[in-house]
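Notebook entry, structure prediction.
Reason for the run: the old model in the group folder had no record of what sequence produced it. Starting over properly, with the input documented here first.
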Amino acid sequence: MAELHLGLGWLGAGLGAGLALIGAGIGIGKLAGPAMEGIARQPEAAGEIRTTMIIAAALIEGVALFALVICILMALRAA
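New structure, fully documented this time:
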């Protein structure tokens, strides 16, 4: 029975980490696409758009990193 709990803990941590990274990738993709379109339409606003995009991407990456830390803690707790 202990092996089952250990296996389920690792499975949950792996699935959580994968979903967190997929979500971060989709979020940054949905952020970068319209930002590039905006820069292409208004090149004079490129600096402001780029700065806002970098800040938002950093926040998305921060959430993804936080999710990965939680998944690692889940895996270590299962062990």
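Summary: The two ends are 13 Å apart (CA to CA).
The old model has been moved to the deprecated folder.
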